[in-house]
Structure formats: C-alpha cells, structure tokens
Amino acid sequence: MAYPGIVATEVVRRWTVEELFHDAASPTNDDVPIAIDGRRLDTPEKVIAYLDEMNRDRAAAKRGS
Question: pLDDT, tens digit, for every residue of 1-10?
C-alpha cells in the first residue's frame, strides 16, 4: 500500500546526524565500507574504482534508455 507524500512527511521527519547515530558504536580499526556485492572498499583506490564503475554503469544505462 502506497502512502501519499503528505502522510510520509507527517510520519517521517528529518533526523540530524547526531540523532541518527546517537547509539551507534564507535568504528573500529577494521571497519571498512562494503559494497552491495560484498567487495571491501578498504583503500582509496578501491573506492575510486568502485565509483568509476558505478558512473560507467549509469552512463551506459542512460544511453540505453
């Protein structure tokens, strides 16, 4: 069931970063971002390569539509 946007804005409010993460544990030395496909993005080079790949995929999808 879909809710109209007006209902969503009444139910969901904007959270500050502090509110969103107020009870989150501090990161550890081995915390790294992990892509949806399971790749560990544990170096700046891996993050840049991942973002480049996403941009190529988006550009290809845009050309195909």
Answer: 565 556 666 5
- C-alpha 32/C-alpha 9 separation (Å) is 33
| Cβ neighbours of residue 40 closer than 8 Å, sequence gap 6 or more | 32, 33, 34, 46
pTM attached to this predicted model: 0.56
Contacts of residue 46, Cβ cutoff 8 Å, sequence gap at least 6: 39, 40
Exposed/middle/buried for residue 17 (C-beta within 10 Å: 0-12, 13-18, 19+) = exposed
End-to-end CA distance of the chain: 29
